[in-house]
Design a protein that fits this description.
Belongs to the SusD family. Keywords: Cell outer membrane, Membrane, Signal, Transmembrane, Transmembrane helix. Helix content is about 45%, strand content about 5%. With about 500 residues, the chain is mainly alpha-helical. It has a domain at about 285-370. A hairpin with a 2-residue loop joins strand 5 (about 330) and strand 6 (about 335-340).
């Protein structure tokens, strides 16, 4: 067996042999009350309701969410640390090759897909409460759709796998078309929304809900509409977003800061999120994207990427999101350090603090949730899609957009035509959703990626971006494993 096949096979076998271990390592384990099992094999596993719960828990443990660095480095929102690992500035300057380590979301997504396939394929044979079984399967379909949605947006058409793989057989699968991948995503989400509950209580908060399925489907339709003003997907996106809005389950927190507090886990604004637990199973997004070498973080700030001036300067002074999203100064041992978006020294750089858990005492112990879909995003999807559908903003579109703006402390808009309203929504998405894995995808679906990157010249970027860069290359390691894969054009 070649080294590369051993690597990918390792990912695949993890879905079976280490599914329970993964639950121990993921914060949802304690919140979703999954009892870990041990010494399991295919012959003894997937027999009971507890086995089914553990298998689904493994799906949540491997939830599909691209590294936020991909979004930051390939958009115009951030400047990576320009020394150290050469792959970072190469990605930022669009000198991208299939060997770049920071594009390897591909294998992690297929780990998630394989675990979901296990639940979808194995649970029908388990004797357990039928309603609970169908809910588990619906949750797995939602998570599988999410993985494929991220894959298709990053790489284009990818292999479709709907049955589990626990050996070398079945690894060599050709790429499906983009339309075929989206058809699977739509089927899974439509099936999931028919079964998933409106909400959960207690330890089950954080699981996929009906609103999460509808909301992600709204974003799928928004993406599929692209730049086509006559696309029927605008109506579908608006309709699905409105369904979420009308459920009465989700709302905006009174302040923007509350949406990113530790108390917001499982709260009214997070339609779907990746949950963490402080100093138990956390992340390092605050420290990692914090001020380089600053002593205010456990282990010191890493400064992976700093805030781009063209993003920072877009915020009005009275916009509450500016102070919540970015750290512009800090004090330590009686000394105050003022930060800048232009100073080349990363120790003096305005940095991201939106998801920083200041209560964490360990490196990698931050417990703030990572939002995959917030209600603010749903409101902005509705505002954009209905404007496109109607050829201009309706009263309801204004209400959706202005709810987001007024929560941020800035004035409501009125009297805009179709073009001006569209531009206003695009701007609002950038200001509201920065550091949440949205900017690159928004630039691509609106046809603005090349223009935006070419205009971003700070710190000598001079990006060599071309049309083919709207898709990332399939990682070379995965190309080596599967000889049926064809590389994206231009790489």
């Amino acid at each position: 067996m070649t080294y590369t096949k051993r690597v990918v096979l390792g990912y695949i076998k993890t879905a079976v042999s280490l599914s329970c271990l993964a639950m121990i390592l993921f914060s949802c384990e304690s919140r979703l009350d999954v009892t870990p099992l041990s010494n399991l094999t295919d012959a003894t596993y997937y027999k009971t309701a507890e086995d089914a719960k553990a298998a689904l828990g493994a799906c949540y443990a491997s939830i599909s969410n691209p590294d936020v660095f991909i979004d930051l480095a390939t958009s115009d929102d951030a400047v990576p640390f320009l020394t150290g690992d050469a792959n970072r500035p190469l990605l930022w300057r669009y000198d991208i090759t299939p060997d770049n380590a920071f594009i390897r979301f591909y294998p992690a997504a297929y780990t998630s897909i394989n675990r979901c396939n296990i639940v979808i394929n194995r649970l029908p044979a388990i004797a357990m409460d039928e309603n609970l079984k169908q809910r588990y399967i619906a949750e797995a379909k939602f998570l599988r759709a999410l993985a494929y949605f991220n894959l298709v947006r990053l790489y284009g058409g990818v292999p479709i796998m709907t049955t589990e793989t626990d050996g070398l057989e079945g690894l060599e699968v050709a790429r499906a078309s983009i339309d075929e991948v989206y058809q699977l995503i739509e089927r899974d989400l439509l099936a999931a929304e028919q079964v998933l509950p409106l909400s959960y209580d207690g330890i089950d908060k954080g699981r996929a809900t009906q609103g999460a399925a509808k909301g992600i489907l709204a974003k799928v339709y928004l993406t599929r509409a692209g730049t086509d003003r006559g696309s029927p997907y605008w109506q579908q996106a608006a309709a699905k977003a409105k369904e979420v809005m009308d459920q009465g389950v989700y709302d905006l927190y009174p302040t923007f800061a509350q949406a990113f507090s530790l108390q917001a886990r499982g709260g009214i604004e997070n339609v779907f999120e990746v949950q963490y637990l402080t100093d138990v199973r956390g992340h390092s997004l605050g420290r990692g994207y914090g001020i380089r070498s600053a002593p205010i973080y456990p282990g010191g700030g890493a400064g992976i990427a700093r805030v781009a001036a063209n993003l920072f300067n877009l915020y009005q002074d009275n916009d509450q999101r500016k102070a919540v999203s970015f750290i512009t100064s800090y004090s330590y041992q009686g000394k105050t350090v003022e930060l800048s978006v232009t100073d080349p020294n990363p120790a003096n750089a305005v940095s991201f603090q939106k998801l920083w858990d200041k209560t964490a005492t360990t490196n990698g112990g931050e417990g703030t949730s990572f939002p995959i879909l917030r209600f603010a995003d749903v409101l902005l999807i509705y505002a954009e899609a209905s404007n496109e559908r109607d050829g201009g903003p309706s009263v309801e579109a204004y209400e959706a957009l202005n709810r987001v703006r007024q929560r941020a402390g800035i004035n409501a808009l009125s009297g805009l035509d179709y073009e001006s309203f569209r531009a206003a929504v695009w701007l609002e998405r950038r200001l509201e959703l920065t550091f949440e894995n949205n900017r690159r995808f928004d630039l691509i679906r609106t046809g603005q990626l090349l223009q935006a990157i070419k205009a971003d010249t700070g710190f000598g970027r001079n990006a060599q971006i071309q049309e083919h860069h709207t898709l990332l290359p399939i990682p070379q390691l995965d190309m080596d494993v599967n000889p049926l894969l064809e590389q994206n054009p231009g790489y």
